[in-house]
Amino acid sequence: MRFSSSLPALLALVLLQPAMAASDCVPDEEACVEVGRWQLGLGIGLGVRTNPLEDGDDIPLVLLPMVSYTGERFFIDNLDFGYTLWESDTQQLNLLLTPSYDQVFFERWDPVNFVLESPGLGTALNGGGKNSSDPKEPYPLIDPGVSGSGDFEGPESLQRKLPKRHMSGLAGLEYHFRLGGYGLHLHWLKDVTDIHQGEERRLALSRAWQAGNHDLALSAGAVWQDATLTNYYYGVPQGDAYWASYEAGNALSTQVRFDWNYRLSKHWDLRALLSYRRLPEEITASPLVRSDKVVTAFIGGVYHF
Q1: What is the pLDDT of residues 13-70, one digit of tens each?
Q2: For residues 13, 43, 47 and 110, what is the CA-based torsion angle, rounded to 10 degrees?
Q3: Which of 3, 70, 235, 281 could form a disulfide with 231 if both were Cys (CB 3.0 to 4.6 A apart)?
Q4: Helix (H) or strand (E) holding 230
Q5: 157: which residues sit within 8 A by CB, 6+ positions away?
Q6: 290 near 305, Cβ under 8 Å?
Q7: What domains can be seen in the chain, in order of their start residue?
Q8: Distance between terminal CA atoms of the chain?
Q9: Whether 33 contacts 2, CB under 8 Å
């Protein structure tokens, strides 16, 4: 039995309904996923994820491939890989390997930009945290002489000279509790790819409703990231950067998300989602960051193969 870390109407990372044990599976039930079966889908629509980085381009969401597999214990949900250690009718404890979503803002063509994190449990609820507020003025640039040229260099050229931020792999424990449409989701994760060796904790509360062919889901949560992780992505080292140096600390982001799904036919769904993430001061104080919010929105159709 696999409880998806996302809500029923989630796009991309959630396009695959949570699996039920084979013995409980009724073939025509929407929430039923046969053990040992692969599920493939493609989201097609219009969407965007805003980029909080200085001079960063917003990320378009147009085509979103989806893939999942549910075995007796092993499961795949897009970029999440897991193994169920223990489960009951309402609870589940898994080992989980998942990407860190903070890197998506630094690399437009990163694979993570083609999926959407779990509501509350993706980038920091994971991939990304939360925000709100007006963007601040960019920090003063270092004297042009540092670059060996008297030409003025704007944020775009300076950003390219910063050390590349890599996508890290986070591994740890995932816990779910679901009862009567309510859900509690916890992640305890640590970098296992030796990118930054940081840690991340995620907590989310969810509520799901179903009315006919409509599935609605609302979630809210928070993501705590230690200073090692935030400093890798949002810190600026001394000496080799063109921005003022900055050292990030432990950060707590918050997020709310709404998802809607409408079942059109065996192969087609309509999907929509709106997510708002607020970034904490420990991140927004970085000269690399201009906004304290990340907004993700998508509306379109999903084809299930």
Answers
A1: 333 333 333 334 434 444 556 788 899 999 999 999 999 998 788 999 999 999 999 9
A2: 60
A3: 235
A4: helix 227-234
A5: none
A6: no
A7: 12-304 (2.40.160.40)
A8: 22
A9: yes
Q: Which residue has the tokens 């039923």?
A: 32
Q: Tokens at residue 42, please?
A: 């493609």
301 to each of 11, 208, 248, 265, 272, how far by Cα in Å? Answer: 10, 20, 39, 11, 9
DSSP secondary structure letters along 158-202 = HHHTSPPPPPPEEEEEEEEEEETTEEEEEEEEEE-SSSS--EEEE
Dist CA 7 CA 183 (whole Å): 9
Q: Which contacts qualify for 74-80: CB closer than 8 Å, 24 or more apart?
A: 75/2, 75/19, 77/4, 77/5, 77/6, 77/13, 77/14, 77/16, 78/12, 78/13, 78/115, 79/13, 79/111, 79/112, 79/115, 80/5, 80/13
